[in-house]
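About this split. The held-out portion is used to measure sequence recovery: a designer receives only the structure tokens and must propose an amino acid at every position. Recovery is the fraction of positions where the proposal matches the reference. Here is one held-out target exactly as it appears in the evaluation file.
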């Protein structure tokens, strides 16, 4: 099997194959970033299929489809074209406990299929054998919301005979450049700091960020430059952005303000376990930042260490200087104790977060 991050690195290989019109026969796309999965599939369609006959040469299968459905659609020859595209979404084939023929087939038929295909063929079942001898004209793309990398059967076959790409969320510094490009495509412009602020305000998914970009451009109207003030006025702030405000309130010993921010996040139906995790992570980052500062690191080194834009590194440095190392370590310990209390059922998660805030504002 490939190293843990090897599949993410295959995005460059995929993009090169699309640009050079050398798209293969077998792919598996998975990961958190739906925008990229959708965008790459669209680029592949444009390269492989003529608009006039796209409806005849593209099929999308959803859910726990049978091996027979996948095979039959892949064996169907293209109509007035050289290639055919078959997309299989959320098949469950790459999760533990999913059997190839469990959906839509009786056990007897499944056993007969497996017995026929197992003889002399590597792979153990009909689909596994077929994936190793796909027709040249087909492009088969599996799109999965969840992949268990321990389920090696199909992963090994696709890795050997095709390409696996994992689409994780992009890092903030990568998103900053992407934001500027999207803004310019819409006829506007923004400074790097403003783009970083948009990334900071939003959830990490590109679809969410693009929605905020469209809102900003509509708000700006005929004005070309998008400003930080526009972002503050228009963008919906994510929980990760609000955590900075909450940490600021804790540093200033403003328990009332911190609890008010918590109430705002609760009103937006942010899960309390997620909020508690984000607070704990923030204080771990502040401990690391304080250690880096002690070793003489500057803003650029800290931004590089956390893979964050300088805009966010500035915030971490400012907040780290607002706490003593003892108070930060105490915050980390308190977070672990309260998390254990929630898991043991001694506290509900909302009360745990509130107690954490009160404890931090008192000890800081």
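Reference sequence for scoring:
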């Amino acid at each position: 099997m490939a190293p843990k991050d090897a599949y993410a690195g295959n995005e460059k290989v995929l993009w090169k194959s699309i640009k050079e019109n050398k798209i293969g026969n077998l792919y598996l796309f998975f990961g958190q970033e739906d925008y990229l999965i959708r965008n790459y599939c669209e680029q592949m369609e444009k390269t492989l299929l003529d608009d006039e006959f796209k409806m005849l040469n593209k099929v999308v299968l959803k859910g726990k489809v049978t091996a027979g459905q996948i095979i039959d659609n892949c064996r169907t020859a293209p109509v007035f074209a050289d290639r055919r595209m078959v997309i299989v979404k959320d098949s469950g084939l790459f999760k533990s406990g999913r059997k190839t023929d469990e959906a839509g087939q009786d056990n007897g038929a499944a056993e007969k299929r497996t017995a026929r295909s197992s003889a002399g063929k590597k792979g153990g079942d009909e689909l596994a054998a077929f994936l190793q001898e796909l027709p040249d004209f087909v492009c088969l793309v599996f799109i999965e919301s969840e992949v268990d990398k321990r389920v090696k059967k199909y992963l090994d076959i696709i890795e050997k005979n095709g390409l696996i790409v994992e689409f994780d969320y992009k890092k903030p510094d990568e998103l900053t450049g992407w934001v500027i490009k999207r803004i310019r495509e819409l006829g506007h412009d923004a400074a790097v700091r403003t783009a970083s602020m948009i990334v900071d305000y939003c959830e990490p998914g590109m679809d969410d960020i693009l929605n905020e970009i469209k809102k900003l451009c509509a708000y700006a109207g005929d004005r070309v430059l998008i400003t930080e003030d526009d972002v503050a006025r228009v963008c919906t702030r994510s929980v990760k952005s609000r955590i900075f405000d909450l940490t600021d309130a804790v540093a200033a010993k403003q328990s009332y303000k911190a609890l008010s921010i918590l109430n705002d996040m609760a009103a937006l139906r942010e899960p309390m376990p997620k909020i508690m995790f984000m607070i704990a992570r923030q204080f771990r980052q502040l401990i690391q930042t304080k250690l880096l500062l002690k070793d003489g690191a500057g803003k650029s080194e800290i931004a590089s260490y956390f893979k964050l834009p300088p805009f966010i590194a500035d915030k971490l440095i400012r907040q780290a200087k607002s706490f003593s190392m003892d108070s930060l370590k105490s915050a980390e310990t308190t977070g672990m104790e309260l998390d254990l209390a929630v898991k043991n059922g001694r506290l509900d998660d909302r009360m745990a977060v509130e107690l954490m805030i009160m404890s931090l504002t008192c000890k800081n």
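Annotator remark: The two ends are 48 Å apart (CA to CA).
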